[in-house]
């Protein structure tokens, strides 16, 4: 795990304008063959949680799961990790509104299109897969019932569908979205994950 963390750190430095020599050395040492490009750390947490649930060691399989810090970075990361750079096969998850960034990033990298699109985002997919009642159970189990009730009392939330309220709530506190990225996967209790996430893992 330490080597993969080091690889992710080096990729971030490379994407920020640093040299790529160390990233290339780590990729070779890890035997990487595939890079999974994700918009942010909550998506990373969900993918890692699902892999763990399926007893898969993605690092041992030569798969690097990378959080890019936003979809607008996809062109840069695709170029560094894909055919023009490290030569890894590219796949990933995209929010529907960010799909054009992914399309252009894959095209510029000369990579075959291979990414999975969420209707809104992965949190939306997870909430619909679990159902609002199950998500609220997770919130209660995390001892966040009072913040949830306070959130619901806000005028801006009145009349909104419960799914939209839940999705917004997950983004109202720093770190909450990341934490629930794995918690919602664990709450599936053996059920099928949302199609974009399930298809991503199945294709690795």
Mean pLDDT: 96
Percent of sequence in beta strands: 5-15%
How many E strands?
4
Spatial order of the strands forming the largest sheet: 2-1-3-4
Radius of gyration (Å):
18 Å
Q: What is the end-to-end distance? A: 18 Å
| Low-confidence segments | none
Largest sheet: 4 strands, parallel
Task: Write a short abstract of this structure.
Helix content is 54%, strand content 10%.
List descriptors.
204 residues, four-stranded parallel β-sheet, 11 helices, 4 strands
Please explain how this structure is put together.
Strand 3, helix 5 and strand 4 form a beta-alpha-beta unit. It contains 11 helices and 4 strands, in the order ααβαβαβαβαααααα. It starts with a helix and ends with a helix. It is of the alpha/beta class and 204 residues long. It is elongated, with a radius of gyration of 18 Å. It has a 4-stranded parallel β-sheet with strand order 2-1-3-4, sandwiched between helices. The longest helix is centred in the first third of the chain and has 14 residues.
Topology:
Blueprint: H1 2-15, H2 21-30, E1 34-38, H3 41-53, E2 63-67, H4 74-81, E3 89-95, H5 99-109, E4 116-118, H6 122-130, H7 132-141, H8 145-152, H9 162-169, H10 176-186, H11 195-202
Parallel strand pairs: 1-2, 1-3, 3-4
